[in-house]
Amino acid sequence: MKFFIDTANLDQIKEAQDLGVLDGVTTNPSLMAKEGITGADNIINHYKKICDIVTGDVSAEVIATDYEGIIKEGEQLAKLHDQIIVKVPMIKDGVKAIKYFSDKGIKTNCTLVFSAGQALLAAKAGATYVSPFIGRLDDISTDGLNLIAEIRLIYDNYGFNTQILAASVRHTMHVIDCAKIGADVMTGPLSSIEGLLKHPLTDIGLAKFLADYKKGN
Ligand code: E4P
What's one GO-annotated cellular component (predicted)? Predict the structure, then answer.
């Protein structure tokens, strides 16, 4: 299972990269705005900075919503760095653009996916990644993890190569459940990754080992 961090915060990206388990980064316009990164040039520069920190895939989202605009913007983003994955929304022109990018060998992440039907369409169009937003489904009392299971079944039935990128992950149990179901990737905040470290018996056990060592020295 690949671990992506879902942020545009460079310090957090560095921290996750330093842990040695990071496979990539996802961003979106809201995450950029949260870091105060606004304006096309600043956003482009920020993507370059992220690519300098990590070795894996970096999702960069298009703002255009019409076919020609998505193609133009996506091609510009893809040229920035070979780690860039063009993030395209699950809309009609987005699906057409994903097919275009796929035929050109440009990698894509189909975002804002909330149903198995949308995930099937993204795979048919040749998306590299499909991003079902599990946390946002949970927020409206719908089972986000069940969507991951449905997509896993459908993709396995037909041998689709599109990778399931569980997005809108909010906590460590989402990560563990996604791993059990067989999501290829999860993207979440730094806390969802670092939370995996924690167990009270580890802390108690380590404290005892260190105390016993001191007794004998
Ligand atoms: C996915 O790529 C999105 O950036 C993200 O996971 C959305 O998460 P949120 O629902 O916590 O905003």
Answer: cytoplasm
Burial 3-20 (b: 16+ CB within 10 A, else e): bbbbbbbeebbeebbeee
Q: For a pocket test of ligand 1, which of 4, 12, 28 has the largest count of ligand atoms closer than 8 A to its C-beta?
A: 28
Q: Which residue has its alpha carbon closest to ligand 1 atom 5?
A: 168
The binding-site residues of ligand 1, defined as CB within 6 angstroms of any ligand atom, are: 6, 26, 28, 111, 131, 133, 135-136, 167-168, 187
87 is catalytic: yes
**Cβ atoms within 10 Å of 184's Cβ, excluding its own:** 16
**How does pLDDT run across 85-111, given as a tens digit for each residue?**
999 999 999 999 999 999 999 999 999
Q: Where are the beta strands (DSSP E) in the chain?
A: 2-6, 24-26, 57-61, 84-89, 108-113, 129-132, 163-166, 185-188
Tokens of 199: 């167990």
Can you give the pTM of this predicted structure? 0.96
CB 141, CB 106: distance < 8 Å: no
The torsion angle over the Cα atoms of residues 136, 128, 122 and 31, rounded to 10 degrees, is 30
CB 105 within 8 A of CB 137: no
Domains of the chain by start residue, with CATH: 2-215 (3.20.20.70)
List the structure tokens of 165: 């990128």
Q: ipTM of the predicted structure?
A: 0.96
